[in-house]
Amino acid sequence: MSRVSSLTKLLLFVMFCLASAFPLTAETIFDNSANNLSASFQFGGMEVGDEIQLASTARCVTNFSFQYFLYAAETDPQITARVRIYLNDGPLPDFDTYATPGSVLFDSGWFVTTPAFYGNLELSAGSELPAGGLYLPSSDITWSVQFQGLGSGDSAGVYLYSPPVVGAELPYSWANAGTGWFRSTSVQRPFNFEAIMQASDVPETSSVALIMVGSSLLIIRRLYANIWPNDKSPEPIAVEP
């Protein structure tokens, strides 16, 4: 067995041990799934967002989920959904003092949605979210959802819960029908959407360990390649008597 092959297997084994020793850990930084208001918010094809305030200090989102409902009159509907996460750094609406959703931190793009009465849409790191998680630079963000392709007999929306058991939020939601954001409120109940968000510290310990071991592997391989090209020991030099 060549020296480089043996070294490669050894370092891969060390990498596996480090990954096992430092598993991905996540904590809940927002949870509004406990207090059901027995109400829903139907919004058709508008984009609607819920401004939330995150708890703790972990800001690398690894999991995000929320409940939705989608009724389609057709048996094979072509309905898609889109999820975005914003910083609340947009311009102030007319006659309002709250900054609107502005800079986009995440955009899922349009994806096919399954009709359901109690649907649960989940985004996770390495799948819909970046592999290392989605970094949030602020504790005050807005997440939004929008449905596209609804027919005249279709309906879509989210379920209302309040108050959150982790984190906080203001008793309104944002809506955008294509002409800009405006706040949507109700005197009967808070317009807060069911959602759960989990995050890990930044940077991930396991990710750092893997990067360090991987970098070391590349450096050592180059070193051995320079000493013994093509993984061969140096040929002896014949000396004439």
Q: Secondary-structure blueprint of this entry?
A:
Layout: H1 3-21, E1 27-31, E2 36-42, E3 47-53, E4 60-71, E5 80-87, E6 104-107, E7 111-112, E8 116-124, E9 134-135, E10 140-148, E11 155-161, E12 168-169, E13 173-176, E14 181-184, E15 195-200, H2 205-227
Antiparallel strand pairs: 1-15, 2-11, 3-10, 3-12, 3-13, 4-8, 4-9, 4-11, 4-15, 5-6, 5-7, 5-10, 13-14
Helix pairs in contact: 1-2
Report on this structure.
There is one protein chain. The chain has 241 residues and is an alpha+beta fold. The chain is built from 2 helices and 15 strands. The protein has helices spanning 3-21, 205-227, and strands at 27-31, 36-42, 47-53, 60-71, 80-87, 104-107, 111-112, 116-124, 134-135, 140-148, 155-161, 168-169, 173-176, 181-184, 195-200. It is globular. The protein starts with a helix and ends in a 14-residue tail after the last helix. Residues 16-23, 204-208 and 231-241 have low confidence and may be disordered.
Defining key terms:
241 residues, alpha+beta, 8-stranded antiparallel beta sheet, 7-stranded antiparallel beta sheet, 17% helix, globular, disordered C terminus
Summarize the structure.
By secondary structure, this protein is of the alpha+beta class. It has helices spanning 3-21, 205-227; strands at residues 27-31, 36-42, 47-53, 60-71, 80-87, 104-107, 111-112, 116-124, 134-135, 140-148, 155-161, 168-169, 173-176, 181-184, 195-200.
